[in-house]
Amino acid sequence: MKERFYKIGEVSEMLNIEQHTLRYLENSLKLKIKRDERGDRLYTDSDIDTLRLVLKLKEKGLNTTAIRLALENTEQEEPVPAPDSSQGPLVTFEFVEAVSLVRQVADQNEDIIRQNRMLEERLKRMEEKLDRYTREQERNIEEIVRMLKTESSESKSKSWLSRLRGK
């Protein structure tokens, strides 16, 4: 069976991403995309599967460095046939293992993001509570100062003798 090749425009439409994004992913992930005699990119079904996986991992929050490391580890191994050859291209056990680990990291990343949001909400509530206490404290201090000024002005109008007698 002859392998089918896709041009960058076709892959861009298939994956619903811009062509410059495909070029960026190729460069940043060091993907080995075949080229024709003119230098145009020729994507295989395997390349497209890899790009789909990369996009899913990016959606889960993984950065390109982590994805590149996982992909580089799989390139070092010899390919082994998949259990059912009708399922797709050749894969390595390490690739499957790396994908599993990447998914675990992505899940953990989602948990961390969720926990971070919860902590941010808790911090916001604590800041609001602190603001309320601070405003209440300021009102109390203002009331005490006002009372002291009132008492001071009343005591100045009395002579020292009447203040001493308490009258």
Give the H and E element order.
Answer: HHEEHHHH
**Biggest sheet: strands side by side, in what order?**
1-2
What is the straight-line distance between the termini? 115 Å
Q: State the secondary-structure class.
A: mainly alpha
Mean pLDDT: 81
State which percent range the strand residues make up.
Answer: under 5%
- Into which percent range does the helicity of residues fall? 55-70%
Q: So what's the overall shape?
A: rod-shaped
Q: What Rg, in angstroms, do the CA atoms define?
A: 35 Å
Biggest sheet record: 2 strands, antiparallel
- The number of distinct helices, counting runs of at least 4 residues, comes to 6
Give start-end ranges of low-pLDDT stretches.
Answer: 85-90
The total strand number stands at 2
What is the total number of structural domains?
2
What structural keywords apply?
single chain, 167 residues, mainly alpha, Multidrug-efflux Transporter Regulator, Chain: A, Domain 2, 2 domains, two-stranded antiparallel sheet, 2 strands, 2% strand
What is this entry, summarized?
By secondary structure, this protein is mainly alpha-helical.
Outline the structure in words.
The protein is mainly alpha-helical and 167 residues long. Helices cover 69% and strands 2% of the residues. The protein folds into two domains: 1-59, Multidrug-efflux Transporter Regulator, Chain: A, Domain 2; 75-167. The chain has helices at 8-15, 19-28, 45-59, 64-75, 93-157, 160-165; strands at residues 34-35, 41-42. Helix 4 packs antiparallel against helix 5. The longest helix is centred in the C-terminal third of the chain and has 65 residues, at 93-157. The chain is rod-shaped, with a radius of gyration of 35 Å.
